[in-house]
Design a protein that fits this description.
The protein contains four helices and six strands, in the order H-H-E-E-H-E-E-E-E-H. The protein is of the alpha+beta class and 182 residues long.
Length: 182
């Protein structure tokens, strides 16, 4: 009986040793594979995010360039207002288009159909410091747009200096953050 107990115990110890010796390489290989896969997934995610942001910025800049062409074509402020309003209504992601003189005074606003506030209120879409440093274009941080009565969307502003021949100005497009996130 004692021999049987020792033999059973020896078998159990042997099996446990074999399992332990087999598990150690498996765990080592498995953990390095998981780490490698996680690193690869992180790199892929970062590349996809970079590409998506690049495409988004390219699209925003393309809209801005198209609007700048319309600003250059405008005959006067009334024509400019009409062109900006049409452009803002046609493009669902645009909340407003503003044209400022080089000192930051609002020359024209084209909205997406909401009632504009009077121009004496503070416009959070104009950031003279950021825009003054822009060579081609600048993009603001997300902020609440304050141009309309009882309508306060979150937007980012993309702005570009434009020489329209008649005067130098800034063209700013407020793009809805809601449309950016979808």
């Amino acid at each position: 009986m004692r021999l049987a107990t020792l033999t059973a115990f020896a078998i159990i110890i042997t099996v446990a040793a074999v399992v332990a010796v087999s598990i150690i390489p498996f765990v080592s290989i498995y953990s390095s594979t998981v780490e490698s896969d996680a690193g690869m997934a992180l790199e892929q995610s970062a590349r996809q995010t970079t590409m998506a942001l690049g495409n988004l910025i390219d699209g925003m800049e393309g809209r801005l360039l198209n609007i700048c062409r319309e600003v250059r074509k405008s005959e006067d402020i009334t024509d400019l207002d009409d062109r900006l309003s049409v452009a803002a209504r046609l493009e669902g992601s645009i909340e407003a288009i503003c044209v400022y003189d080089m000192e930051g005074n609002t020359l024209s606003v084209g909205g997406s159909g909401h009632e504009l506030k009077d121009q004496s209120s503070i416009n959070l879409s104009y950031d003279g410091e950021l825009f003054g440093s822009a060579e081609n274009f600048a993009i603001s941080l997300p902020h609440v747009q304050t141009l309309f009565r009882e309508y306060y969307p979150w937007v980012v502003t993309i702005i570009r200096p434009v020489d329209a021949g008649k005067w130098e100005k800034w063209v700013a497009v407020d793009i809805s953050c809601t449309n950016i996130s979808s």
